[in-house]
Amino acid sequence: MGALFRRLIDDLGLNQARLAAVLGLSAPMLSQLMSGQRAKIGNPAVVQRVQALQELAGQVADGSVSAGEATDRMEEIKKSQGGSVLTSSGQTTSSSGAPTVRRVVREIQSLLRSVSAAGDIIDAADALAPTHPELAEFLKVYGAGRTADAVAHYEGHQS
């Protein structure tokens, strides 16, 4: 987590206090996350704000969002309540109003990863594999796999 937060600080031109404020965390909590004293964020709204900042940092890096626009977007992110992409609107949806596949997948990943570490998820999947192979695959793909692989899995299981 420390590397992720340091990247956000660098890419978005923030300091730790400003990043903590945008995320809705206390500065000491952010410091604990960055130093590895804490490993998980229990608040799903904060997890979604982290994801939104990651997307914003990518847009700043590729030049599709200016520094001024990024500042405005960070204020929007700071005010966001988080919540499920399955029921929210705005940037998490496509032009048809449906949530994007990537956003749905990221929410599933975030939920699983907020509950348990990847190694524990793999152990659980291995235990389930003999009797529930589909569930074991789901846990491995979404709980410990790459987002691109999870998106492909999700798309492959839509009817």
Automatic annotation (TrEMBL):
<dbReference type="InterPro" id="IPR001387">
    <property type="entry name" value="Cro/C1-type_HTH"/>
</dbReference>
<feature type="region of interest" description="Disordered">
    <location>
        <begin position="64"/>
        <end position="100"/>
    </location>
</feature>
<feature type="compositionally biased region" description="Low complexity">
    <location>
        <begin position="80"/>
        <end position="97"/>
    </location>
</feature>
<protein>
    <submittedName>
        <fullName>DNA-binding protein</fullName>
    </submittedName>
</protein>
<keyword id="KW-0238">DNA-binding</keyword>
<dbReference type="GO" id="GO:0003677">
    <property type="term" value="F:DNA binding"/>
</dbReference>
<feature type="compositionally biased region" description="Basic and acidic residues">
    <location>
        <begin position="70"/>
        <end position="79"/>
    </location>
</feature>
<dbReference type="InterPro" id="IPR010982">
    <property type="entry name" value="Lambda_DNA-bd_dom_sf"/>
</dbReference>
